[in-house]
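Section: Multi-chain targets

For targets with more than one molecule, the full set of components is provided together so that the structure can be written out for the assembly as a whole rather than chain by chain. Components appear in the order listed by the source. The example entry contains two components.
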Amino acid sequence: MNYRAHKLKEAVIEKIILLSGITSIVIVLLIFIFLLKEGLSLFSSVSIKDFIMGRNWYPISNPPQYGILPLIMGSILVTVGAAVLSIPVGIGSALYIAEIAPQKTREILKAGIELLAAIPSVVIGFIGMITLSPLIKNLFHLPTGLTALSGAITLAFMAMPTIVSIAEDAITAVPRQYRDAAMAMGATRWQTTWRIVAHAARPGMIAALMLGIGRVIGETMAVMMVTGNAALIPHSILQPVRTLTATIAAEMGESVQGGSHYAALFAIGIVLFIITFLINGVADIYLHRNRKKGLK
Amino acid sequence: MDDERNMTNEKSIIKTRNLNLFYENFHALIDITMEIPEQNITAIIGPSGCGKSTLLRVFNRMNDVIEGVRMEGEVDIDGQNILDPAVDMVALRKKVGMVFQRPNPFPLSIFDNITFGLEIHRLTQKKNFEVIVEHFLEQVLLWDDLKDKLHKSALSLSLEQQQRLCIARALTLNPEIILMDEPCSALDPIATMRIEELMQELKKEYSIVIVTHNMQQAARASDYTGYLYLGRLIEFGVTSQIFTAPREKLTENYISGRFG
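Its structure, encoded as tokens over all components, is:
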């Protein structure tokens, strides 16, 4: 090929890559615009304040009430619960796999965790419904085992593979020379792992946590099956809750297209979109700040 | 070779007796008997793969992490055989510091690199940290350049500064011996020269063992030199003698550049 043909080829490849990059951004924008278009019409009849702060979600009563506070609380409770359960365990197993486990154990564990990530959420939800909720019901003497706690535990299982495998990659990527340096200074394995390795891997571990939590917030199927789906403001983690995602999934089929209920479900979608956006934004700011300060 | 000739008249800080080291079935160090004198710079030279880094790593037991390593014989530091399984590894590594081939400051701030050792060994209270950081950075001649950016990442420094920082980090534990594993191989000639000057300062207080495959460096910077070849200590003596009048033919071949 001559020089001109080479240049042409380069230019074409560059354009194709540019196009794929732009496509993904455009698609995200289109989704957001579509959400806004369908959802914003709700706010001609319901104020934003009543929507966000309203304590009653009665979409099919007359007149309907579209207050999503119970749903937001349900999502927060389940997500925070899942995070509290999965973060320590996830980081702990990542550290164990990367730093402590012998070669053979490590390979078995890694394969197992990747397998856990491959289980469809409906199956995890099913198992949670059959095994976990009776257990919780009996353990706490509750009228029903379908509670926020069951949701949190189920979702913790789903977040864990993401957290473990990404955090483990980040820890393994820490160069050997840091470990050598710490060891040569008489640091114990724990001191080396905690003060140096975990520190050096921190940006990657935060990314792991964020992706794990992102998965929890967006999860619908499993959480729908185990949380009881009662759109009430929960007063404890042992009560049934309903999440934002479960509401959309459960009610979309029965809402009239173009009606106010339909618009309200899209408005919930906007809220979810904003929450995810904020989480990513916070993670980004944190990682960026970290890099600027030089990992300190 | 008789052992007598590997002795020096100075007080020695490390004594090895019939040290043998095996990686699985590979005999990496063979019958090494030597005495490393206190408060001097001792260079260990030899072609790649001769076992010089392995020998250095015997002195702070850094070989232990490699699976299948086995050691026999005796290595005496301060009257204690450090090959004894009961030896306190933390105490040993406080006594014997190490500087690596590639500068490896921790991915922490300059300040935290210096205080790491103090913190893990609880050597002093936090309120003394600032004074101590200044002291050790002074000692490696970094203080003037870095005093305004102590909380910047150590990874933002030049390689020479990083290596000086690593030396300072090793000094914070108040070691008796500093092992240096080709400490200048990642540095340019000017930086190398300045690190060598620093070593001359440090030997007033510390005993330094340096591994190098730069023979000029050994000739310039060390007081004693040991020549290692295929796992055997061929010759050990005063540097000037090794480089001008080697007793062994093998040593002569190596230092005259006939191979290596």
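Chain A touches chain B through 21 residues (CB under 8 Å).
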